[in-house]
Amino acid sequence: MGTLKFIGPIFIFFFLFNGDLRSQKEVPWSSDFKLQWEDFKGEVPVRAMAAATTASGISYSFSSRSEFGEMVLDFEVQSFFYPTISWFRPELCNDVTLLHEQLHFDISEVFARKMDKEMSETKFTENIKQEVRDIYKRTLKELDDFQRNYDKETDFSRNLEKQKLWQKQIVSLLK
């Protein structure tokens, strides 16, 4: 079978970045990198109600081949932060807001790992392209639901007790 490749990001509104990476169009997640306000390079929308928006998401690429009657998949799944479409309003933001945004980016990484695991455990058929797309769509839906729940429960970082609980949960998921 020929090589199939696809790369597709999803944008979730929250943030991340470091060093030479800070000026790139997209920055891959790294445990060594923590977002700073200068990483948010996007323009604040005129009617923006939020204090900040982090654009982060998941991308994947893959190639496949048939070996001894089985489909073999070589793939990569990554999470990214997109500085040029992430923004903040300095008058409304503080260190708690920044931590909240960092966790949004970290949540993207949690779901990139989840997708990676599912792809590595799946026995694909000749319909591999659609099967990979289905895994990606399902992962993005779960990611979006998780992100929305995080914002709702923490009241966008204003509920400090819930924010601390979510931080512990996300840190443990990344271990």
From TrEMBL:
InterPro entries: DUF922 (IPR010321)
Domain of life: Bacteria
UniProt cross-references to Pfam families, sorted A to Z: DUF922
Protein name from the UniProt record: DUF922 domain-containing protein
Organism: Maribacter cobaltidurans
